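Hey, resending since the last one bounced:
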Amino acid sequence: MKEAKTQQEFDELSKLGEWFYVTSGDWVAMGSSHVVAMGSSHVVARDSSHVVAWDSSHVVARDSSHVVAWDSSHVEAYSPYVSIHAKSSTALLSGGYIVGNKPLTPDKWLRACGISIKRGKAILFKSLKEDWTTQNNVSYKLGETTIAPDWDASFDGECGKGLHFSPTVAQARTFRDAGLFIACEVAVKDMAILPAFAQYPDKIRARACKVLYQVNEKGVKVVSMAIS
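The structure tokens again:
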């Protein structure tokens, strides 16, 4: 994992979507950047950025960013859609949706991410390979229902055992960035949350989904590919 020592390095590493760290100074994490704040660093998290706070670092979280708080870090959330995972009893936390030892329910996770639930269903996003399949060779087709071949609602791990979705395209592309993104309708009753303190909290598992339409990297529907 690389350290950002200048603003230019910080911006370049942010665009890569890979983890990097800072130990001092003031920084702004935007887009889908993944930053580890250490020492006495001060990070402002915006968009769907993901920040892990250590030591006595200070994080100000906005938009739908996600922060994991360790040690005596200080996290201030200025949006109800910010999720804070508390991993230390000495961390100072305020605002947002704070997750402790107890896992969320699917509906609370969705609302914490700013996702609307209509008639028991929600629209989530997924990144696919160019042939409309996943790394596990699960195939998706426009207008059709995809069912997880390995679904296990009682599974207490993070990977596998269901179809995986993210609340935004920016978060979905951190798992795969092949340039093909889809919007899916998923029933809340078919969802299962990840375990508490998950390493990748930007996703949720589900038994099945209906593929609605293709979207671009900003989450906007690609009209030519839409199902009428």
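The longest strand covers residues 121-128.

Sorry for the duplicate.
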